Automatic annotation (TrEMBL):
<feature type="transmembrane region" description="Helical">
    <location>
        <begin position="229"/>
        <end position="252"/>
    </location>
</feature>
<keyword id="KW-0472">Membrane</keyword>
<feature type="signal peptide">
    <location>
        <begin position="1"/>
        <end position="17"/>
    </location>
</feature>
<protein>
    <submittedName>
        <fullName>Uncharacterized protein</fullName>
    </submittedName>
</protein>
<keyword id="KW-0732">Signal</keyword>
<keyword id="KW-1133">Transmembrane helix</keyword>
<keyword id="KW-0812">Transmembrane</keyword>
Length: 279
């Protein structure tokens, strides 16, 4: 059961947050993350941001972090995307340079962190160019096997269509993914588990998928890998089937020819007997 105070805060945030349109007064000091869903909230609506900490005004956003930003309708003029080497903050105020490792970043915004010198080797779908934002701090996802690791535990709470609250806990770490994961108990990097190994979460598996039976499995839509012995058996079966069909066709054709031969022979015999019987 979720705390009632948290549910009430979530409801109030959705009901009251972000209602001031362009030109309205606002305060950037009111910018915060909603405690349940961790959504960025401000006095301004989704198309604008607050220009000042005090006596601010909601002005149109100057950048966007997503290809299709929330709150815009078809036909609206969208803010521009930031160029390489910069990012758009949550409030959409303006593009700023990427953040160096060790500096603060906005929650779970890996794309705000600058890549490291070995970002090609560290890059995976669980970080951004080998960098990751954990506990609102940029760092490299380069913790190796057996090293101490940092684990970021975040619970997201949202309201479903039936009005019931749903919680989803996400664990993220700075181990070299997808080959390693941070063990929650020892806080050390361990090798990612292969197909069929017992698991508790997706991040423990090499394919980042922990199935319903708590076993590591492949991602949905992953092509099936056929073993060489399966290829060999398939070829043998196809060859045997082709040979069997050829033999059957040969035998059937032979029987048909034999039947025709007997019919022709009986016909000539009948004709010969008829000729001898004529006076």
């Amino acid at each position: 059961m979720l705390p009632r105070s948290l549910i009430l805060c979530s409801f109030l945030a959705y009901a009251l947050g972000g209602t001031v349109t362009e030109g309205g007064s606002c305060s950037a000091s009111d910018n915060h993350l909603e405690p349940a869903s961790h959504k960025f909230l401000t006095d301004c609506d989704d198309k604008t941001f607050c220009s000042g900490t005090t006596n601010g005004t909601c002005v149109p956003r100057r950048c966007r972090a997503d290809e299709f930003p929330y709150g815009f309708q078809p036909g609206d003029v969208l803010p521009s995307m930031c160029s390489q080497g910069s990012y758009c903050p949550d409030d959409g105020s303006q593009c700023v340079p990427l953040i160096a490792a060790g500096q603060p970043c906005e929650m779970n915004r890996d794309n705000q962190c600058a890549p490291g010198p070995d970002h090609i080797q560290l890059s995976s779908n669980q970080n951004f160019n080998g960098s990751i934002c954990l506990q609102s701090t940029c760092m490299y996802a380069n913790a190796t096997l057996g090293q101490r690791c940092l684990l970021d535990n975040t619970t997201y709470i949202d309201q479903g269509p039936d009005g019931q609250q749903y919680a989803n806990t996400v664990l993220r770490d700075d181990c070299h993914s997808p080959y390693l994961f941070c063990d929650e108990g020892s806080r050390q990097c361990f090798p990612a588990k292969v197909f069929g190994s017992p698991c508790l979460a997706d991040r423990e598996c090499l394919a980042y998928t922990c199935g319903t039976q708590d076993l590591c499995t492949d991602l949905p839509g992953t092509p099936i890998k056929v073993a060489p012995w399966q290829y060999a058996i398939t070829v043998l079966c196809i060859t045997a089937a082709m040979v069997a069909i050829c033999v059957m066709l040969f035998l059937i054709h032979k029987r048909q020819r034999l039947r025709q031969y007997r019919e022709i022979r009986d016909y000539y015999h009948e004709q010969l007997r008829s000729g001898f019987s004529i006076p």
